[in-house]
Fold these 4 entries.
Entry 1:
Amino acid sequence: MGTFTLQNVVLVHGGFVDGSGWQGVYESLSRDGFRVSIVQNPTLSLKGDVEATRQVLDAQDGPVVLVGHSYGGVVITEAGTHPNVAALVYVAAFAPDKGESVSTLIADPPPGAPVPPILPPQNGFLFLDREKFPASFAADLPAGQAAFMADSQVPWGVAALEGAVTEPAWRSKPSWYLVATDDRMIPPPAQHAMARRTGATVSEIAASHSVYLSQPEAVASLIAQAAAGTPQQ
């Protein structure tokens, strides 16, 4: 059999947000004929988020491009060993190696890098400072939208940040990486370093950490490139 373009896409969100933020990407991909599913991962623990993702992967009718934003990159790195996954796309995302977690990846920030305004844990959950949220997470979104995101934050479980990857899917699956060059949550040099390590096909875009919201067409375009660039026998 020859090659054909993958048509199934599964989107995984990161911390502090939910799956509704993918709407623009969903609409763009759907217009182009993709079948798109969105994981509502609870962000309580890595194990739980991987289970939620694998449940969606189990329901797919063929090979999948699995996409993660931010902490969602950890989830797809662990869940992406699922047999239905043919390619991985990291969107301003963490791409850990075996034994790594968000906690280990952010433990030693480079000098001068912006520090995300994460408040001290409350009962095992993290929030971002609401006043500082727009500048750090969503600087290129309309002020009203950024304020809504700040006020509708999903509690991010400390256990999710500490969840370590056991078998990185990028070691056996091709990957793509979109670096957001104006990101103030994950420093762009760290994004580039993780992308290089995974051997990803890298694209850059001038955008905030909320690139999937501010530039959905560009994110969808990279996902489509991954779908087209992954031959299936």
Entry 2:
Amino acid sequence: MAMVHTGGPDGVRLHVQRLGPGRTGPATPTAVLLHGLLTDSLAAYYFTVGPGLAAAGVDVVMYDQRGHGRSERPAHGYRLDAFVGDLERLLDRLGIHGPVHLVGNCFGGTVAFQYAVRHPERVAGLSLIESEPATPAWAAKLEKLLGYTATQLSEHEADALAWIDAHHGGHTARLAKSAARLVRTTTIAEDIPSSAVLGERRIRSVRSPVLALYGADSDMAAQAPWLESLLPCSRTVVVPGHEHSVLVEVPALVLRHVLGWIGDPGGRRGMPSTAALAEVEAAS
């Protein structure tokens, strides 16, 4: 565990944890795990797929993104480019210069995809869990979500937290309280929706193999055919009976697919089709 300052005028102190297989060498793959927004932190990976990836021989880097977990919480500077810049500088500070595998859950996947657009030579593969590229539709959705959060968890914080505690337990209420503080004390709710977004031409520019995992009952699953049409080196896993929280609800399944993608990015040894994967998951 360490605090790493990313340096530069926009740099912040990031809480980083690294899990390794013990001995590493030139052939050891590195996976950087990026968590989601507001209520999330590196703990989402620490208690799900992080240890399993390390046990399988992967050099695992996890960190709390700016404003989250134990990382620094500046008052300003939460546009998507700032999160991508943190990833750029963190890898440099850690001395990781070769291509890495990026695993992103929700907003973390959006950061990972943006990084792949900017640095295609530094990405060996992408695993996007319930995530999507930053498009105008994404920005509109985040504006609505963050606006609602600002209202419910800031203007009516006590009532909202009491309801969450009663219906989802104390742990979730504590996470929501942290999210409310982040929204209340920073410009994150204004910054993220005003981030620069991608058109289809720039999305098509990504040549890294992309694995996309969705819960079948999540609204994000509907974008799978669109994303596959833009990215020839992409595959989709649709998990029946689940919504947005597939990482925490079925971590063993997610680990299996992410490990398979890291070991065979792009499915060169015969990744099955989206439909076939859905059938496999339904039977498992």
Entry 3:
Amino acid sequence: MPNTLPVINLMGPTASGKTALACELYEQGNFELISVDSALVYQDMDIGTAKPSKEEQEKYPHHLIDIITPLQVYSAAEFVDDATRLIDQIHAKGKIPILVGGTMLYFKALLEGLSDQLPSADQQIRDQIMAQAEQLGWEDVYEELCRVDPVAGMKFKVSDKQRIIRALEVFRLTGIPITELQAQQPKNVAYRYIFHNYALLPDRLELHQRIEQRLNDMWEIGFLNEVESLIGKYDLNPDIPSMRCVGYRQALNFLINSDKSHNNQHIMREQALFATRQLAKRQYTWLRSLRENHKFTTFLTLKQAQEDLRICYR
């Protein structure tokens, strides 16, 4: 028998305001919050992930925050297991789960299963890779692959051009190594939920301004100090999943491999800003793909979302 209680999926790019919206809904109804964020799962990574503060988490408790250390790995398959278990527990209490976050792979896995999670070919990105190879040589392209996906780098040779193109294509589209995606175990759960899908898709210019302001705030409240503390506590390297989170890789490289000059710090901040904007671009791409296959309500502004959802779930 299908479960008639809804599951609210609240998605959007980074800095779009979705967490604030979820917390506002939480205050006015019989809800529980489940985080759908591959960065918020890590303990001790608070500032750079824009994690809700301890006080905010006490007021608005979120499931699936701070569940592993930065040295551990958390897969989409594990997320589906944890999320479905939590959804059932929340429904058993007579409450409605709100799943909120920007990790679109997790939402896709929940909505569709994991048997076909690799993105389709993107000719524009393939052309970019080919142009890079023609200008700089296949050695340069292969070295990039080794940086972003060391496991694929060990499997492939420089002469494996088609496989290298596909691996880099997938990484540029998703921000996740193809070997990590392929390692996910196929998982097609017979879903019994009624999903209510909502997407916050603000104007790109406005979003870029919000991203820049958020990053500036992070630097001001001690993001670099946080990464220094992580270096002291854990055996970190740029290739582990936690350090692929935007901002952390750039900060880690700055602290370990540079002379920490003012100029290098400026370069690092610009690199982090660019990486965060690229993340938002990938999130928009994922959302467009999901909206092709699932019913969505899309909001262009946070105010519009607040007004409409307040009416729907009051």
Entry 4:
Amino acid sequence: MSVLDLARPEIRTLQPYSSARMEAEGAQIMLNANESAWPPAGDAGLGCNRYPDPQPGGLLQALATLYGVRSEQLFVGRGSDEAIDLLVRAFCGAGQDAILIQPPTFGMYAVCARIQNANIVEVPLADDFSLDIERLVGAVTPAVKLVFLCTPNNPSGKSIARTDIEYLAKALVGRAVLVVDEAYIEFSDQQSAVDLINTYDHVAVLRTLSKAWALAGARIGSLLASPDVIALIRRIMPPYPLPLPCVSAAMSELSASGQAAARDNIAIVREQREIMRAALARLSGIREVLPSDANFLAVRFDDAGTVYQRLLKAGIVVRDIRRYPNLKDALRITIGTPEENARVLTVLGGEKP
């Protein structure tokens, strides 16, 4: 059975939109896209008067090298959110198919499903935010086409063991696409699931440059999957998903010097995460600092609402995650610079780390 058998039949046979840029290969004078012939002021040589390549070859190759895949196993879009949305649209027929998630988890899986009018099957995480594998497998009905795993999890910060991911990959053969969201993997010692896509054509991995690579404002996210899945996603992608300034920013960050700087910052975040975890655990009014493999800490407070307002009055915004299951007393604190982290501790009544 091919993974494409799980996709919507009308998407498999869809005639994709052929953009003007796709038809311009090798052209010297481009008069096919109704663009301006003149670049805008301050263009700095980017050529923003022209539509961008839908999947720029240089960026694809740089990301393929970074993630250890082939370019035909890679789709690049506007953050991981776009890849999530396209996966749901490609595999879930409105009103008939479903996704499976494990709350508490990243909210966009459910949002994209609801927009598509796909059903949502929930298998909640355990009290310690671990995955109940057998319960998850048992919940996969024929309607479930996509199973999303977030590791490290957002908002808890807990990782899923590689052995558990492999077990699910085997259990879901011919049943559903396993989508492993690794937005925070760079901050973890956990092994990526990327290599599994060479063994299982129904495994897909989400990666992003928004977190560890400091490009949240550029919106560059990747879907890593079998060539068949990538080709399917490219059938329904927007004509021009990647603005030229964003591609330029990504190429700069993925240069040798950019990668070295990013890895230095990742090391600082990991070090500061442990410093903050220990310092927060010593403060009164804090019930628990959850273990985290990400660039944030989920913290349980005696009165999370009051703490949130206290930080806000001091000019510090953290994430209120009390709406999530099993986190009704918690705030999520991103690891900032050492100076920013020290300020948080000062406002919370502790000493600087």
